Amino acid sequence: MAPNQRVHAAGRHVTTTACAPVAPALTLAADARFVRPLRSNLHRKALGVGMARLDLIGACVAQVIFLVTIAVFVCRLAGQARAEWWLGVVLLLTAVPLAYLLLQAPQYARPRLYYVQIGLMLGYLAVELILDYVAKIEFRQVRWMVIGYVVLFFAGTGGMIGVASRAGRLYAVSSVILFLVMATLAFVQRGVTGM
Q1: Per-residue confidence at 39, pLDDT binned at 50, 70, 90?
Q2: What are the b/e assignments for 61-98, b being 16+ CB within 10 Å?
Q3: Lowest mean pLDDT among 66-75, 132-141, 155-164
Q4: CA distances in angstroms from 40 to 35, 43, 55, 138, listed in the order given
Q5: How far apart are CA 110 and CA 94, in angstroms?
Q6: Hey, how many other C-beta atoms are within 10 angstroms of the C-beta on 140?
Q7: Are 178 and 65 in contact (CB under 8 A)?
Q8: Is the pLDDT assigned to residue 117 strictly greater than 80?
Q9: What does residue 19 show for φ and ψ, rounded to 5 degrees?
Q10: Using alpha carbons only, what angle is made at residue 112 by residues 145 and 99, rounded to the nearest 5 degrees?
Q11: Which residues contact 95 (CB under 8 A, 6 or more apart)?
Q12: What is the pTM assigned to this prediction?
């Protein structure tokens, strides 16, 4: 019997291909078959690490926004206008990491809601910059302007809860707590100071 033949159970001789020793280098077809999934998995893992890092940045920015806004309201209640102004500048600077998150979002296939959440916060920060720092308009005594401003403020900061929650339950819960504290202080300081 030839080396490439074996006896089948029915007694017939069946020709088989001889097993060649494994070559140290893979053929082009085998290389493509094994390397593509490897590259794909590595790419997926790299995207996962990048996405987790981006989620953490978003959560930290959301926490900073809540904490700075709480500090602004406390300073307003205490009559510390200069400290309130500087804290407002810090709040405006959060637009930089928010813009970074928005620019990186397409790479990680973020849902549309993510764009809306960050876009609303950036919109609020733009309105804050124009009204309080550039034009210095006393809009807080005009009812219709205050209503629009407050709606944009709560839409933007509420969206930050969604951004923070992408980093995990701990960030989601702490963001909700900070949001509630911030919202309470917003209404308290409005009632006390009229601002």
Answers
A1: very low
A2: bbbbbbbbbbbbbebbeeeeeeebeebbeebbebbebb
A3: 132-141
A4: 8, 5, 22, 56
A5: 20
A6: 16
A7: no
A8: yes
A9: -80, 120
A10: 65
A11: 122, 125, 126
A12: 0.75
Buried b vs exposed e over 166-184: b needs ≥16 C-beta within 10 Å?
A: bbeeebbebbeebbeebbe
In degrees and rounded to multiples of 5, residue 8 shows phi and psi of: -75, 160
Query: What is the token pair recorded at 179?
Result: 């949001």
Q: Which of 161, 156, 157 is nearest to 174 (CA)?
A: 161
Distance between CA atoms of residues 161 and 6, nearest Å: 69
pLDDT at 46: 54
Rounded-to-integer distance, Cα 18 and Cα 183, Å: 76
H helices of the chain, where?
28-78, 81-93, 95-104, 112-128, 143-165, 169-193
Distance CA 59, CA 167 (A): 6
Task: Provide the token pair at 175.
Answer: 């963001």
pLDDT the model gives residue 14 = 54
Residue with tokens 């806004």: 69
Q: How far apart are CA 118 and CA 106, in angstroms?
A: 13
The pLDDT value recorded for residue 9 is 53
Rg from Cα positions in the chain: 30
Q: What is the mean pLDDT of residues 147-151?
A: 94
Q: Rounded to an integer, what distance in angstroms lies between the CA atom of residue 170 and that of residue 191?
A: 32
User: Distance between CA 6 and CA 151 in Å, rounded?
Assistant: 81
The conformation of residue 24, written as its DSSP 8-state character, comes to: S
Give the mean pLDDT of 47-63: 89
